[in-house]
Amino acid sequence: MAAMMNPSPLFSSGQELASLAVSSDVLRRSWNAISELRNQIHGRDDPTSPLTVRVNHQVFQDASLGTIIAFVTTADCTGNHLRELGTELVSYQEFSATLSSEFDFIDDKVNSSFHFHKAAVDLFVSVKDDVSSITHQFESSRPVIITGHSLGGSVASLFTLWLLDSMSARMYRNSTLCITFGSPLLGDNGFQEAISEYPRWNSSFLHVVYDKDPILFFVMSDQNDDTLRSNSELCSYRPFGTTLICSESGYSCFEDTESVLELMKTIVLLNSAANQNPGHCWPEFVDYGGILERLCWKMVCKGISKLPDSLSNPLQAGIVLQLDEIGIEKMQDGKNTSCLVTKIVERAVSIPQHKRNGFLPNKILMEMKVHITHLEWYMKGIVDQVGYYDRYKTIRSRSRDEAKSKLEIIQHHKILNLNWERIVREAENMLQKEGANFQGRWLYAGTNYRRIVEPLDIAEYYSKGKRDYLTQGRSEHYRVLEQWWKDDLPVQIADTKRSRASTLTEDSCFWAHVEEAIILCKLLKNGQNSRDVEDSFRKELIKFEEYVMDLVNNYSVSYQIFWPGSTFMQWWREYCKIVGDTYNSPLSDFMKHHYHKYA
Predict the structure, then answer these.
(1) Which of 76, 244, 403, 598 would you label with 284, given CA atoms 20 to 30 Å apart?
(2) Which of 102, 221, 202, 97 lies closest to 157, judged by CA?
(3) Torsion-angle region of residue 103: left (phi > 0), alpha (psi -120 to 50) or beta?
């Protein structure tokens, strides 16, 4: 597993990412869509209307960016919802039941024990029928941007998750971006963990927050007495995606959950100390457009000369500049921020590198190829006319001279399994839908791995006296890899042609079928079963014969299975004793003509 380790980050890129976002047109145009929608509904609010229908949405076609979908809640709707429902949570199961199971974006295998902000859920449920019908306005070749302000941003986030999950949105997954402005945190720790398992989904969200926005105080404070919530209470909510924190001084991006929470808590404390705490006096509209315009005029490169000489670590220096950008240094009036910097640096170092860099770098493929190569050499070794399956099956009982090579092969086997289990799990999350498949060389590498390594799992399983590998012992990641291969017909055909010239048997579960056939022969030989049971055993053995002949006729079986020391030939000899010399079948004819000397 040491080969899978990655180096710690050398620097922080939060400012560069934030500068790219602020200097681009995407934030300004997204906010313009929100402002235009708000202007259209301004003055049409009916104070007597139910709160659950007080969210508006509209689709805009932007010539430069693509499709923009904006969500806006009226000021009184936002205030009333947050006052009445506060930080109340609703479970994912309750949410799914409300939507009649239309919102099942997280598979139970990943995590379904999480909660959403109830106020956001109520608003999304009120408009789901309308918004689910607007996907026909999208153009498959253009990006889709979903945006919203305050609780409208929460609705935008839920709609984005629904869009990413829906089958009709398959073509938009690589070009879907959700941008929220001053939006409350949407879900709890379980929700954040579930989303983080889907790297492309997590990277599809950018949350813009102004340090004076009262929504920050709402997120961090107790709704009864306006005091800052304790750390245990803070654990209820977690951010996800990327958070862009803005201040009058500047801006910076943060991705780590704990760091964002720590920064929000610090900002609220500093605002309270400076008597800038807005409490729950919800303004009609926080002008993020004006904030963005002022930030665009800020110089991109600044602050380097302000760094203390003691900061020799580039990562630490970068985080200090980030805190200076969002005004924390100025708000603390020169007080030491080393504790906060240290916490964020520690979090940055502890985050797994593969989470930061995205999914499946080519380096991992090369590392797995090294381990596969060792097993391929093992496969080509011939000892007493015994193939690699049977050699591995008895690997722990072989001579002491082979001890070193035995341990190495076992180690390669275990490392491959551990890493491919993780690779498949992350692939499922990245590709969103169960049954989606790898592309190109990843699919071939996974198939090659399955055909080489799964027989070793089977050998280990039956060497322990177990039964029913297919239903009781097979790892789920093998099933997923096999299904992906079957779902991709062009790759399947090409791969079949490759296997005809190799020593690999196409069905990675072939030896499990052989082992079960041997067990059936032993049960028949005992003669302790009823006539009906024995007839069923014979029928199963005939099916196995047909299965083997299909593989032979399709050139899909390795020649090693016919070596005299193989488990297959052991089965064949036992089977011939049961059926007798006069027995005829396609397999018996084939064996008589080609392998009679081994019988």
Answers:
(1) 244
(2) 202
(3) beta
Measured between alpha carbons, how far is residue 43 from residues 40, 73, 74, 148, 380 in Å? 8, 13, 10, 19, 79
Closest to 497 (Cα-Cα) out of 485, 486, 488, 506: 506
Instruction: Using alpha carbons, select from 154, 144, 171 the residue that is nearest to residue 87.
Output: 154
From the list 238, 207, 227, the residue with the least C-alpha distance to 269 is 227
Q: Is 68 helix (H, G, I), strand (E, B) or coil?
A: strand
- Residue 582: which pLDDT band, with cuts at 50, 70 and 90? confident
How far, CA to CA in Å, does 85 sit from each of 76, 89, 90, 239, 278?
14, 9, 11, 19, 19
Nearest to 296, CA basis, from 14, 13, 12, 18? 18
Half-sphere exposure of 550 (CA within 13 A, CB side): 9
Domains of the chain: 15-308 (3.40.50), 362-598 (no CATH)
Beta-carbon neighbour count of residue 593 at 10 Å?
A: 8
Contact 257, 239 (CB under 8 A): yes
> Residue 282: which residues within 8 A CB-CB, separation 6 or more?
75, 78, 79, 82, 214
Instruction: Specify the pLDDT at position 71.
Output: 93
pLDDT greater at residue 234 or residue 564? 564
Return the number of other C-beta atoms located less than 10 Å from residue 85's C-beta: 18
Per-residue pLDDT, 426: 72
Q: Would you say 334 and 258 are in contact if contact means Cβ atoms under 8 Å apart? A: no
Q: 505 vs 6, which has greater pLDDT?
A: 505
- Taking a C-beta distance cutoff of 8 angstroms, is the pair 387, 561 a contact? yes
Instruction: State how far the Cα of 514 lies from the Cα of 544, in Å rounded to an integer.
Output: 8
28, burial (CB in 10 Å: exposed 0-12, middle 13-18, buried 19+): middle
Higher pLDDT, 174 or 365: 365
- Which of 376-390, 422-436, 510-524 comes out lowest in average pLDDT? 422-436
DSSP state of 435: T
- Picking from 178, 68, 171, 160, the residue whose alpha carbon sits closest to that of residue 105 is 160
